[in-house]
Amino acid sequence: MAITSITKATAFNRLSSTYFFSTIPPKISQYRNQIAVANLLQRYGFPPSQLHTFLTKNHFLLNNSNLHDIQSSLNILLSFKIPQNSFVSLLSGCPAVLDLSFLKKWQTGVSKFRDLGISSLAVSNVLAFSRRFQIDPDGFLTSVDVLKGLGFNGGVLTRVLEGYPRIIMMKENEICEKIGFLEGIGLSGCGIEKVFCLFPEVLGFDIENRLRPLLEEFLELGFSENGVREEIVGEPRVLGMELGEMSRCLGLLRTLKCRVPVKESIFSEGEFRAGLKVKLRVDCLCKHGLIRREAFKVLWKEPRLVLYEIEEIEKKIEFLVNRMKYGVGCLVEVPEYLGANFDKQIVPRYNVIEYLRSKGALGFEVGLKSLIKPSRLRFYNLYVKPYPECEKMYGRFAEGAGIQRRHPVGMWKLFKPQKYAESNEDVKNMKSFMEPLVS
Prior knowledge:
There is one protein chain. The protein has 25 helices and no strands. The protein is mainly α. Helix 4 (about 65-80) runs parallel beside helix 6 (about 100-115) and helix 14 (about 245-255) crosses helix 16.
């Protein structure tokens, strides 16, 4: 009788525990799965700041049964020796690449074309492209053999797969047309290889609707065929210009109102290269959120941007948006920000204003215009001089930060006139000269 009661109690406890776990809200279970997947991705180097957005967009990863498969997929991806930045970009841009069956197929394929000298970045791009368009390793290797037969060897093949992986879906005659077009305008074999290495995207452009009209536009603007050919070999990205874009860039340059030395520096390599520099900087500004009309307006107001490296411009924009918390649209009103020195002007002024704001010393809001446009001395007198603790972070005009001398300390002695001994005869001559003037 006692045994029967114990058995009933045990059965009741099991039923109760089963009922308890079955009544766990699905939100809690999904939250636990999210934490497990997030911890797994973080262990493999995925940035914690991007995890929430990544998992929110990809709910298929939150299936608890897939956790082991995700770990196996990540191990396979790591075996491909993909760089960390490319690894994160691959997962963010194409999360479906974590499909375990897809990666098992490519595990053997990657080991085959590793012998061809293809870089890890090219492997990453090919994997993302193949997953989107369901390309198997055998099809890819067939495309590689076709490219090698057309002369794509060594670094050229790697660079093309890094910049334009869509080439593995192109037909052989389409690639031959691009090569024939470049040969037709007078490019040598080395020149064609340089174009494909530096600007592989040209392989995707239509000849009749894009490339040929573009070259005709260059000739109509007054550039010679030899000049255009040399510019294409020197900077192949010029082939990425839209129709009419060079005309607009040159029109902007010809209406610039700036100092003569700045204008001479802009045109130091010729009009063609100056127009290309304008195009690249317009693309940079548009990539960060401006429309083309606003980008041209910023360049017209701040012509020195044409002389600055694109990396420097991007660093200033990143600091403006991420650190200073301004919108990119502020550049239209205050283009001088991009012309200011980053280390000597932008960062010190921002540090001073942030310090004063944190101490409650500012009774008004200091905008981007008030931060950038004042001269060094005026900014010092307004925000630094009344607060001695700010002088060290500002640097300029601070006590002890003397101005660098042009010459060594004792150099003034060399510029002092040499003295000569005066004789009695010299004294008589001076007196005889001065007596008529006095009388």
